[in-house]
Amino acid sequence: MSPSADEFVSSLSNVTMLWGTLIAEAFYRLGGRYAVISPGSRSAPLTFAFARHKGIATSVILDERSAAFFALGLAKESGIPTALICTSGTAAAHFFPAVIEAGESGVPLLILTADRPPEMRDCQAGQTIDQLKMFGNYPVWQAELAVPEASEAVLEHLRGMVVHAFRRAKDAHGVVHLNVPLREPLYPQVGTLPDFLKNESWFADWVRPIRPPISFTKCIAQADIEKVLNEISGYTKGLIVVGYCSPYDVNDFATQLGQLSERLGWPVVDGGFSGIRSQCDVVPHLITHYEPLLVDDAFAHDMRPECVLQLGALPTGKRLRAWLGMARPQIFLLDVADRNVDTVHRATLVRCSLQDLIACSKPRSNMESSVYTDQWVRADALIAERVDVFMSAEDTLFEGKLSWLLSRSIPADTPVVYANSMPVRDLELFWRKGHGGNRIFVNRGANGIDGTLSTAMGIAVSSGRHTCLVTGDLAFLHDSNGLLNAHKFKGALTVFLINNDGGGIFEHLPVARYEPPFEEFFATPQAVDIEKLCSAYSVSYVRIHNWQEVQVQIEHPPFEGVRIVEITTHRRMDAEKRMRLVRELFSKGWSA
């Protein structure tokens, strides 16, 4: 809810409070609804303004690094810029990992860093560092606001800067950094403001030009899209590869993808990050077991594509990337952003959205799938059947089974967040196709374990739904400060914590053969009692002993709060089992 003109006038006390109030009001009128604030003194005018605004939901998080990833989760789920606010000095430096992730994965954040005014810089004033362009090239735009001044010209300038910043963050799907120098007084002490601000009509005139940005895509011309479609339609061995992309409306994305698959007659290879595995009723020819299929040399040779339509960055699996590099197909990369996600370095960028492509495509007169597509579909179904048989009989707490079980049992429309390293690879290998409509979230911009828990908490709050996080012990502990916010958390999150006593991903790498230093310096087991850690934060904790108990936790989510479900597994045995699955189960051949 936005203040009326008279409420605005009555709230003014001095120029810095005016400055913060106008920034918050512009943010709200542009469509912003969430702000994440880390406490501090220099940022007080911003904190007062955002915390008091009736239309903006605010969260205060002590640890700036955790705060930034929480904001990332809010923006990742909603697609709307989230405001991220901190005080001056090194506070903003803790935002950097999340800024990198948002910049690399295209998540809209509007960062407001309070700063000392110019006369207090470079003179050993406390909590003062060089904050200008401190995030390097990761923001899509960055600027410093003027020092607050109660003149009409400068206040008009402020409005223009905030409007431009919000629009850039939303349209470019990236980070915008505004540095905000502020002089004292920083609190609502009475000051002297010019008479024109006491006129109620001034506020109405100031906010009138502020409108939510109308998103637009700099798309290639329709004739160029039709030319691309004509070219790719001529290939009989074609693949649609869906990699790292997290659509805000999975239903529309899946429907459009299904239409394109039908019209081209091509199978859809999905890495698991888009959520379309839970929309298989509208996506025909959906392939999920491409990695194990490519273990078969004969299959990999016979099924080499002539053309690939790639959506987003390629999936995680190295085998797929190596196979595409060897096959050397014509690759068309569909992307609306100004970024390079061409991992194999041979793609032609098609600057348009999936919706644009569908609008220009035409249904085929013969809707029967090709022999090439049928071979992919039959092989994928055979591998899926083998995986189901194996997992159904697996009684030990093999960590790969969790993703398979979640895909079968999780309530419909439940958002699921995956940590990087082994959990995301198990998602790719074992999440089976279904109809639940679950959105999948992974921080694949920088592929790191930074901020996993905090990101999931932000996603849970933004979605308004019970959310699941699948994480390893190292990723969880790396962001355990996220639990500081658990007592104020206004959402429902179940954390399935796979505790294999270290970094399971390293068991699959050549370094595992070298002991020492493997166990101490790479696997890095941590002697943390997870139950006691949860107790310290008053967080609900459940220890798992068998898969029946996991099933109960999946089917009975909490109404609110954070719940940690610890599943203790054996790192080395699970790595050997996973590799044996690929080598023995998947290598039996793909034909029936």
Question: In words, what does this structure look like?
Answer:
With 592 residues, the protein is of the alpha/beta class. The protein folds into three domains: 5-207, 3-Layer(aba) Sandwich (Rossmann fold), CATH 3.40.50; 222-378, Rossmann fold (3-Layer(aba) Sandwich), CATH 3.40.50.1220; 394-571, Thiamin diphosphate (ThDP)-binding fold, Pyr/PP domains (Rossmann fold). It has 22 helices and 18 strands. The protein has helices at 5-11, 15-29, 44-52, 64-78, 96-105, 152-172, 200-207, 222-232, 250-264, 290-293, 297-302, 318-327, 354-360, 371-393, 400-409, 422-430, 452-463, 473-478, 518-523, 530-536, 547-555, 571-585, and strands at residues 34-37, 57-60, 82-86, 109-115, 139-144, 175-181, 238-242, 268-270, 286-287, 307-311, 330-334, 347-350, 416-418, 440-442, 467-472, 492-499, 540-543, 561-568. Strand 13, helix 16 (422-430) and strand 14 (440-442) form a beta-alpha-beta unit. The protein is globular.
